[in-house]
Write a structure and sequence with these properties.
- With 227 residues, this protein is of the alpha/beta class.
- 41% of the residues lie in helices and 21% in strands.
- β8 and β9 form a beta hairpin.
- α2 packs parallel to α3, α6 packs across α7 and α6 crosses α8.
- The protein is globular, with a radius of gyration of 17 Å.
- It binds calcium ion.
- The site of calcium ion has 5 residues, from loops.
- Calcium ion (CA) binds next to loops.
């Protein structure tokens, strides 16, 4: 088995479909139908990733995500949103979402996204050296980031984005390249996703963040004193 995927969805027809497609890929599937049971399943079952509906009874998906992040749980989370205003909430609130997909979605697309976040979380070999740039250190093995020696909490996607840029300091990546190389799929969600995650990494690292905007091209990582 490739790991357990926690599917949080209150519509039976959708969760049945997701269970079918996800288990076909060799993952185990556990379905939770409300926010509270999702929280307890996330805490006790250690899923490889969570597919999290935003609109849920009692405690909605954004609250579940916020609660997990607040307790230091950085399991990859793929949000399912039903409306544009939900997309804005997921992207805008620095919730710590890794990705989102808009309903109605194809189950194949959901599976592709799940495989992508799970693959990214397990790409690193045990002897890879930490990446350093200025005061920022990225430990690829423990997936920890420090700023001037102090730990910084990043989501799985923020971590992967920063690590990808820092592997080749000075190299400039277009948004489309980053979507395909970091997220692992074509730019169907649009490049706004990249900008949002870059903004979140910058917000967390403050003045000493190494990500530079290269106007009209994309992003690169450089030591803060490089011009
Ligand atoms: Ca729902």
């Amino acid at each position: 088995m490739r790991g357990l995927i926690l599917v949080v969805e209150d519509e039976r027809a959708i969760s049945d479909l997701l269970r079918l497609y996800i288990s076909r890929e060799g993952f185990g599937v556990h379905v939770a139908t409300d926010g509270l049971s999702a929280l307890s399943a996330a805490r006790t079952m250690h899923p490889a990733a969570i597919v999290l509906d935003v609109g849920l009874p009692a405690m909605d998906g954004t609250e579940v995500c916020r609660a997990l992040r607040a307790e230091g749980n950085w399991v990859p989370i793929l949000f399912c949103t039903a409306r544009d205003d939900e997309v804005d909430r997921v992207l805008g609130l620095e919730l710590g979402a890794d990705d989102y997909i808009t309903k109605p979605f194809s189950p194949r697309e959901v599976v592709a996204r799940i495989k992508s976040v799970v693959r990214r979380a397990s790409l690193v070999t045990a002897d890879e050296k930490p990446l350093e740039l200025g005061e920022v250190t990225v430990d690829l093995v423990t997936r920890r980031v420090t700023l001037g020696g102090e730990p910084v909490a990043l989501t799985a996607t923020e971590f992967d984005l920063l690590a990808h840029l820092m592997r080749h300091p000075g190299r400039v990546y277009s948004r489309e390249q980053l979507l395909s190389e970091v997220w692992g799929y074509a730019a169907v969600v649009g490049t706004r996703t990249v900008d949002v995650h870059v903004a979140q990494v910058r917000g967390k690292l403050g003045d000493r963040n190494p990500i530079r905007t290269v106007r009209g091209v994309g992003y690169s990582a450089e030591a803060p004193d490089a011009s």
